[in-house]
Amino acid sequence: MNPHIQHLDSLSPFTKALQNLATQNNTRSLQSYAHQGIFVRDTHNQLLINLASNDYLGLQTLWQDTIATFLQNASKDIAYLSASSSRLLSGDFPIFSQLESYIANLYGKDCLLFNSGYHANVGMIQSLAKLGKVLFVLDEYVHASVFDGISLARAHFKRFAHNDIQALQKLVTHYHNDYDMLIIVAEGLYSMDGDFAPLHELVHIKKCYENVYIYLDEAHSIGVCGDDGLGKAKELHLSQEIDFLILTFGKAISSVGACVVCHSQIKQYCINTARSLIYSTALPPINVAFSLQVFTALAQLAPYRTHLRALSTELISNLNTQRYEVLGQAHILGIVVGSNERALALAAHLRKYGIFAPAIRYPSVPKDTARVRICLNAALQFSHIHQLLESLHKAEI
């Protein structure tokens, strides 16, 4: 008998928990995929159009030669696959400050790198919560990492209905006098509903109070929004009004890591208090160097963004004529079907037609709003959009 499973009875709480998830059609498992451009190949050797990738500019496909050249020509001072230390010890390679300085110049503020968007949100929320009486006012659909930061910090928080400005205004009006800082937390583009935050309205509320700040996560809009690809706040000329701007590199930037764009004093404060920065081995220098290369090229990638918007427009306009409830204003779309069972069935149907678009279920989305999420990227062609539409038309869900 396998020694790893001979004491299965002692794991009965885990067994019961998994059985409970199974009855709700809510179990998850890891599956390996070989990546081939815009396709993935599963363990059954089926080739599928990958509509689950966050590589929104398609750089892993469209930039294959550029990436190969970058790796071949990487200088010895960046050709490290690990920093092997925290930045506060020996892991602070010169390339880190070069990337921070470049991003800082783009936004006219300062910049501090983190290992991922998750690290950034958890570390920033925990640090900000230490500043006295702080209230976080969260859009209910902000990323799970924000809520984890709130939980770890035992911070005071209130939630408001997604993109409901009136509900937000009531909370700010009611609580702003009770706290030293009131921090509104939103996202430039929401990862599940695919809609944009009402940034003009958020900034208007902020300007009415001296102690109100805005924390904006642009994980899904950096690289994609704006003529220069610098995100939704920059596109709307509002970036100077954002006090804590989170940029993630693992999506459209096609790398790894994240940063917060903020004022210099805030950066220095976080260097001293952000536990996810202080106690983590720093990013691999070669990835930091690649992130810098992408940021220096963002303005020249406007044709990629134009093509991505055209693909999104084509898909949205055609989906609106079908029977599905569709959420999304840009390159992230949710086809809402309600139950977990129906979402899994629709994902399985699309897979038969060569399309990989997984079911998204609770707790990633609210209960009874399970959906198939479509993530477009600039390496796709209109023929792939039409293949998806034809597949959806044939679904009996």
Automatic annotation (TrEMBL):
GO molecular function, a single term: 8-amino-7-oxononanoate synthase activity
The keyword Transferase is assigned to this record: yes
Listed pathway(s): Cofactor biosynthesis; biotin biosynthesis
E.C. designation(s): 2.3.1.47
Catalytic reactions of this protein: 6-carboxyhexanoyl-[ACP] + L-alanine + H(+) = (8S)-8-amino-7-oxononanoate + holo-[ACP] + CO2
Listed PROSITE patterns: AA_TRANSFER_CLASS_2
Domain Aminotransferase class I/classII large residues, every copy: 48-392
Keywords attached to this entry: Biotin biosynthesis, Pyridoxal phosphate, Transferase
UniProt cross-references to Pfam families, sorted A to Z: Aminotran_1_2 (PF00155)
Needed co-factor(s): pyridoxal 5'-phosphate
GO terms under biological process: biotin biosynthetic process
Similarity comment text for this entry: Belongs to the class-II pyridoxal-phosphate-dependent aminotransferase family. BioF subfamily.
PANTHER family: 8-AMINO-7-OXONONANOATE SYNTHASE, CLASS II AMINOTRANSFERASE/8-AMINO-7-OXONONANOATE SYNTHASE
Subunit structure: Homodimer.
Protein name, entry field: 8-amino-7-oxononanoate synthase
